[in-house]
Amino acid sequence: MTSNPMLAPKVIENVARQATKPMTISGTINKTIVLLLTVILTSLYTWNLCATGFSDKAMLLTWIGIIAGIIFAIFTSFKPEHSKITAPIYALCEGLVVGSVSYAYGKAYDGIIQNAIGITLLSLLTMLFLYKTRIIQATQKFRSTIIIATVAIMIFYIAGFIGALLGHPMTIFNGGTLGIVVSSVICFIAALNFIIDFDSIEKLSNSNAPDYFEWYGGFALLVTLIWLYFEVLRLLAQLNNRD
């Protein structure tokens, strides 16, 4: 999902340096907020569907959101020049998923949604602080390590998905010590992806990248943010199961 392939060095290197209106960091922040509000809007819709007894409709929209979200994420990563259109569509799709998944967790565990949102946002701000103060720097070694770790996590999840389709669902995340440790490590890796995102956005801005990279940067941050939110939900659910 990220590490962040959406902001890979190759993308930055291939940016057209001459633009009538170059991207800015403040513009990227504004676009990220717009995308996040879009996610919230559609998530409230599927949440409300679940809450009012239309779970079947919410489930259909959730699967549409998953499939369409993957398609638009891949398309946007290869065609950043279209991100002004595809990034908001991706946000709409992800919101459908976030709403129904959040409702399911919230119904099973009291207070888990508020805690997950709080931890996710705190992680974002903490990583921003660590990046701005240069306590953590996005060196090439750091990038390579996080990319390898993230790809390994994605392969792990793909293998689990295939196993579930074959009738052998993944049971590691059942509240046991191993599952909690694995989830904690995944959350940590997901949070560290923010460092790469911040560094890539800063480099794009410094290189006078075209202004559509503001949407592209917001899209990349959103991918990491949603991934971390889901991982935090999983971790908190496991901790609740131990109580």
The major beta sheet can be summarized as: none
Number of helices: 8
Number of strands: 0
What is the approximate shape?
globular
Q: What's the overall average pLDDT, rounded?
A: 91
Helix content: over 70%
Task: Give the low-confidence spans.
Answer: none
Q: Spell out the helices and strands N to C.
A: HHHHHHHH
Termini separation: 32 Å
- Share of β-strand residues: under 5%
List the domain count as a whole number. 1
Taking all Cα atoms into account, the compactness measure Rg is 18 Å
Strand pairing plus helix content: what structural class?
A: mainly alpha
Which keywords apply here?
single chain, about 240 residues, mainly alpha, 8 helices, about 80% helix, globular
Give the helix/strand layout.
Layout: H1 9-13, H2 25-51, H3 55-78, H4 83-108, H5 112-132, H6 140-165, H7 177-206, H8 212-242
Helix pairs in contact: 2-3, 2-4, 2-8, 3-4, 4-8, 5-7, 5-8, 6-7, 7-8
Provide a quick synopsis of the model.
With 243 residues, the chain is an all-alpha fold. The protein has 8 helices and no strands.
Write up this protein.
The chain is an all-alpha fold. It has one domain. The protein contains eight helices and no strands. The longest helix is centred in the C-terminal third of the chain and has 31 residues, at 212-242.
